[in-house]
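Continuing from the previous page of notes. For each protein in this section, the sequence appears first, followed by its structure tokens. Read the first protein now.
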Amino acid sequence: MTGSLPLTLRVAGRRVVVVGGGHVATRRTLSLVDAGAAVVVVSPEVSDSLASSIGRGDVEWVPRTYAPGDLAGAWLVQTATDSPVDDQVAADAEAAQIWCLKGGDPENATAWAPAVARVDDVMVAVSGGGDAGRASALRDGVAAALQAGELPMRHRTHHPDGFVALVGGGPGDPGLLTTRGRRLLAEADVVVVDRLAPHALLAELDADVEVIDVGKKPDHHPIPQHEINALLVDRAQQGKIVVRLKGGDPYVFGRGGEELIACRDAGIPVEVVPGVTSAISVAAAAGIPVTHRGVSRGFTVVTGHEEITALPHDGSHTLVMLMGVKRLAETCDELIASGHPAHTPAAIIERGYTPTQRVTVATLETLADTAEAAGVEPPAITIVGDVVTLSPAWPPGA
């Protein structure tokens, strides 16, 4: 590759000749068509895939062997016959000062096609020094890192249009953030973060990324929701990529719907990235499946603040309560009064998926006193139902 200069060619609308009709010619032709080139295939026979493109009118076909003059008006030529014809095409291209991609013979080509990966608006082209397999492996590795948000994706120039992504951060473990969420975080100019979001990921951001903590605690909302909505709109209207990093899932008691409406009303493009909700994942972290064959056929997710007396009252229906530590005693009394058996197994899980996770189990009748004695504090979720007995924390034989 000595003496080469990496370039990106604008082939849209320009004549490109492909000599050959086999696998290499097919692959290159389809790539050129995707790039908008006016492709002419010269070959007595073509593959089924090429025949389909020809039938649709995407490709012009000259159904014969190559002849001098076939390169007239071409900007680029790909030869892939695996025969002496390739040498003739390359020589004609050289004489006409047309760049030539020579299949299987990079040493005698005047142009090389790299292995290409596209992630959003980023295109990565990798040359393997003439080794196509090596280039493909490197390409795949770089693409995977970009897709996972492990490489910087931020634009370094001003955006004419802003953008907001409502990203569910999962229950707090950075490894449970989706790859799409992580990639958007790597592109962000502004991150508006909740108290229960995976804060460890903030250390990976560039120093000039604006991080705004709008975290709420029970009965303490330093930034009310309408101001958070206005904040998202304001930063996006400045042409910035804004990530609203939330704990759990944006639409499971996360008020993501309100933020979506506020942005849309202001004409701001919005993307919602689902997250792993703590209602299910934290229960799983404690060894409690919210449904289990022969034990529980369904579950309901509620907050501890709302009326729950109308819910099913037997242990085969799992009840998951979020944000209910402060009212735990009242909630347990209400459930029993409305028909839940006092001996129904129950658990409260603090700081799920963190190194300090703790599981406290009891019955519905004794859970509040047990939690108070243990000094249980939010963030925590409460599980009520027979599935609690499947947890390793449940005493054997109890």
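Done with the first. The second protein uses the same format. Note its length before scrolling.
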Amino acid sequence: MKTKETGYVYILTNPSFREDWVKIGKSTRPVDIRSKELDNTAVPLPFEIFATLKTSKFNEVEKLVHKTIDRLTDLRIRQNREFFNVDPHIALDIFRDIASTIDDAVITEYKDNQPIQSNTDGSKSEVPTHKKRGRFKFSMVNIKVGEYVTFIPTNLKVKVASDDSIEYEGRIYKLSPFVGTFLPEERRTPSNAYQGSKYFSYNGIVLDDLRTAFEQASNGKTNLEENKILQ
């Protein structure tokens, strides 16, 4: 008897979207691969994985999730797309309700694109231990004072003023406050809290991604693609 293929239904968020905008879709491949495929010039910043539901019934589950959200109210941003105006935590609650009726469902929650919980009944398990990241500093990625980085949302180039600040029009800013000041209104979040290194790039690479590559390299986990970044 042929084993039925398993797949994923996912909740993706994006720092360039409102906090209550999500993309809910499906994939037969790991969702981190799918989220990278969606990273293109039409979206200013990369997608982030909020949660996934793995099951052999992923096709049915995706349709049921969409239908459930549509029943709440008209939350679909465009009727022919997978984008919804719903808090990701509400979408996750819908995942959990559906998972409780499916034998092979496995829900995984994510933080900073890393899995923090795998479960079928809401209980926590397989929680990896990670040291809390400190504040971003340019020295972490070998960017020197006087060099320029790009503010991605507006393609604005600003000068590195110190190890953790930038200069623009004669004023000094930390990264996150700069984002809160100059981010276009339509991309602001209700909390007005931003992780600054995700909104700037250096030689076309997002600072947060560059930092991750350096950290992995220092831990002996670098791969060929990361080597290209670091060269």
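What the second structure shows: Residues 7-119 form one domain. The mean pLDDT is 79. We return to this in next week's lecture.
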